[in-house]
Design brief:
The chain is an alpha/beta fold and 280 residues long. The chain contains seven helices and 13 strands.
């Protein structure tokens, strides 16, 4: 009897809210859209000269501002953030995403421009000859490859927000026509911290990610509607980065998603720590 009661409870509480009866004798499971985040951050490279200080902090504050209750977050940090692990995480998420889902793909690391493309530097011991050498072709992840992956998500009607807090990140080629899905509301937003010719600060107070997270936590609620949209969060971070860098850093926003896409319903603000400063 107890087991029967348990079965009834599972059906009523768990299954019924996710079932629609599409036709006589036909039962269709309805799964609500899910929100996912893949956060990649590297402070500690094998080569000490490449050391950064605030990438993991930035990944933590942005993912924290989005909210672990709403997003299923995967964090890949430092020595775990190898080329293979990053691409495997993307492939696994591509296979598990469904129509209507949202994916935030976040990078905070070194970024370089080489061979007419933008490259993210994952954790690797392949930079011994220098980050300007051909070793990048064997160790780094090209922006073109990342964009190809993103296009597959969009073809599955998954919305994607690409977030890069690296130097030169707007050097990534972004053909917006590849992210229009006719007859679908899915699309992609590219949010980058610096133009193709600009470094991105790695300071304790002024990183683009930190300011973006502050916007999400309420500073960007310009119309006081208790919600922060993707455009509000970007505009807040843009103005403060430009001001604090004395006009030396200009974030970029390109999107086929609506500016009114809500990223955050407001919660309590979090205090941020202090770290040394470098550039990415």
């Amino acid at each position: 009897m107890n087991r029967l009661i348990a079965y009834v409870v599972v059906i009523v509480v768990v299954l019924l809210p996710r079932i629609s009866f599409a036709g006589l004798g036909v039962v269709e499971l309805v799964v609500p859209p899910q929100k996912y985040g893949i956060f990649i951050a590297i402070d500690e490279y094998p080569e000490e000269i490449l050391t950064l200080y605030n990438c993991k902090r930035d990944a933590d504050v942005v993912s924290g501002a989005l909210g672990c209750d709403e997003f299923e977050i995967t964090k890949i940090y430092d020595e775990e953030a190898t080329y293979g692990n990053i691409m495997r995480a993307l492939e696994d998420r591509l296979n598990s995403c469904h129509e209507g889902d949202l994916l935030v793909l976040f990078f905070a690391s070194h970024g370089v421009l080489q061979y007419d493309d933008f490259f993210v530097l994952p954790y690797s011991d392949g930079y011994e000859a220098g980050v300007g050498s051909a070793s990048i072709m064997h160790s780094a992840i090209s922006g073109s490859l990342i964009m190809d992956f993103v296009s597959y998500f969009v073809k599955k009607d998954v919305n994607v927000i690409l977030f890069f807090d690296t130097c030169y990140s707007a050097g990534m080629s972004f053909d917006i026509s590849n992210f229009y899905n006719p007859g679908s509301e899915s699309g992609c937003a590219l949010i980058v911290s610096a133009s193709p010719l600009e470094a991105a600060t790695d300071s304790s107070q002024d990183t683009f990610s930190l300011l973006f997270s502050q916007g999400l936590l309420g500073e960007a609620d310009f119309n006081s509607d208790k919600e922060v949209t993707i455009r509000e969060a970007f505009d807040y971070a843009y103005e403060h980065v430009r001001e604090r860098s004395d006009g030396m850093q200009h974030p970029v926003f390109i999107s086929t998603l609506p500016n009114t896409l809500v990223l955050k319903s407001l919660g309590e603000k979090e205090e941020q720590g202090m770290e040394p400063q470098r550039v990415r």
